[in-house]
Specification:
The complex is a heterodimer. By secondary structure, chain A is an alpha+beta fold. Chain A is built from five helices and five strands; from the N terminus they run βααββαααββ. Classes of the chains: A alpha+beta, B alpha/beta. Bound molecules: adenosine-5'-diphosphate (ADP) and magnesium ion (MG).
Amino acid sequence: MTDFFLKRLSFNIVANDFTVAGKSSSAIKNFLKSMGLEASVVRRIAIISYEAEINIVIHSYGGKLHCDLYEDKITIISEDTGPGIANIDLALTEGYSTAPESVRELGFGAGMGLPNMKNYSDDFEIKSSSEGTFIKISVFV
Amino acid sequence: MIISEFAKQLNLNPLFESSKNINVEGVYIGDLLSIVMSKAKQNFVWITIQTHINIVAVAELLELSCIIVVENMEVELETVNKAKELDIPILKTNKSAYEVACMLHDSGIK
Ligand SMILES: Nc1ncnc2c1ncn2[C@@H]1O[C@H](COP(=O)(O)OP(=O)(O)O)[C@@H](O)[C@H]1O
Ligand SMILES: [Mg+2]
């Protein structure tokens, strides 16, 4: 396994900006497609990065999304400053959401983001404190 | 099939003109974006009552063939503009999700 990524794409994600939410994930998807990666891998990364991006928009004060390309895997890193997640096990429960009603009306807040991220990954790591949240997810290629 | 032909056949109202050629391989009905993200697949038709601009991001990421907004929900102008920019057809109807699903089924999409 290689220790260093071959390429990194990085994006700033602004809190509460729903008009551009999904744009970074889309850029990641299109890049991976152009690299000729298998459609199923591209789909999994698209789902993972979208959910990570939306969570930064809804639940944090802002952060960054990185997509690292290794020889044998794609890694998505989501890091934000924000209130963090007090109970990670609870947050990983399907259907659990603290999203406000105003964003639920738009279709967000199904409480399936973290479970989706975990289910579609081969490796899932999450750390959170009252300062922010760090998530690292890999999909093997 | 050309999207305008598809729209005409099913009596749906396209929100902008497009000459896109779609290839429908399935249908998904849903209004919760995370669930749609995990269930809908490439070339699926997505039936929803959501109209917010983020539906375009979902359709773009999944490479859906088109979005059908049912129950005559008013689609925001910014959603239409974004969809036009990315050439993701949005079709509107006053019918219900169930009625549209039945029409799609009757038209040969199983
Ligand atoms: N980046 C984040 N910062 C703070 N809290 C988060 C973050 N991501 C997720 N959470 C918390 O975990 C819960 C579950 O997340 P998720 O499964 O994506 O569901 P949803 O986003 O639909 O609420 C959220 O409602 C929120 O309380
Ligand atoms: Mg979420």
